[in-house]
Amino acid sequence: MTRYLLRRLAQAAFVVAGVVVLTFVVMRLVPGDPAVTYAGPRASAAELARTRAELGLDDTLPVQLWDYLSSLVQGDWGISLHTRQDVLGDISTAFPASLELVGTGVIIAVLVGIPLGVLAARFRGRPADGSIRITSMAGVSVPVFLLALFAQNVFATKLGWLPVAGEYDPSLDGTSPLHLYTNITAVDALITGNWPILGSTLAHLALPAAAIAAYPTGVVAQMTRAALIEESTQNHARLERALGFTRWQVLTRFSLRPALSPVLALLALVFAFSLVNAFLVEAIFNWPGLGRYAADSIRSSDAPAIAGVTIAIAFTYVVVNLLVDLAQAAIDPRVRIR
Asked: Residues 117, 131, 135, CA angle at the centre, nearest 5°?
């Protein structure tokens, strides 16, 4: 297991390094002068020259790349051209809210998608199977922003069951101020026992998290169904049925565990996809996550901030993928020797 872990850590480090280099090269190919963006369109030639020197834009590309990599390792991700703040600090403030939203969506997907996949496999070819497959395909096919708009208009605006937008009721800042430890509001509220803000956050989280969960739920349900059906054709399943176990027992007691291995591998992919999808959902529900920061950065051609967001997403994907691989290895020992 240790050897497997070291091999996966080396692969993860290689992927992160490749993404950093590629991001740097792409940012340098984007049209526009970062010095003009930073100093402003009315800056004089002398001010632009001074800004270019401060940002290191007069150095050769290899020197700029080396300085960039060295700074990243030291925790210096550059200065945002539109907020004039440290990029890592900006991302550290915004990213936990996105992580809270996407994490909740993926948890919903796992809790709903796997049981749906088991039911579909158990009742294969019957109306229940058909209903689950159609619902799953709809969840995968419908654009996430359309689902978000529908949920907001129906359940928040017309029915008034849930809040329209925001992370929690801002009036609670006066009556129940929240002490921040992780910048993930629900977690901080739970840690500090701030039940008013926890309840308000969960209510505000319900609709955007459900919209984000639609795609991964459909994918997880379909993958679980396919993996279970394949497992049910194996020799061990025939032997278990011959020993008197019911089809339901064979599925849930003997086939589900090996069938979860490909489902876990898929979770890393859907997590990264959901993280990017969350940018649209955050805009619709005014969720204070990374999406707003990324959109502002793109509008202002803020190369350091765009690069920071890209690296943060890539790093998150690599970490999630690594955790999924370790979970796969724990569930299925055959994975360690591949």
From this structure: 75
Instruction: Say which residue the tokens 């051609």 belong to.
Output: 301
- How confident is the model over 110-120, as pLDDT tens digits? 999 999 999 99
CATH architecture of 87-335: Orthogonal Bundle (1.10)
pLDDT in tens, 264-281: 878 877 887 888 778 889
| C-alpha–C-alpha distance, residues 334 and 125, integer Å | 32
Chain position carrying tokens 């009721």:
169
Phi, psi for 266 (deg, rounded to 5): -70, -30
Domain locations along the chain:
1-74, 87-335
Determine which of 143-157, 166-180, 291-305 has the lowest per-residue pLDDT on average.
291-305
Residue 26 carries which side chain, given as an amino acid letter?
A: V
Contact, 152 vs 172, CB < 8 A? Answer: no
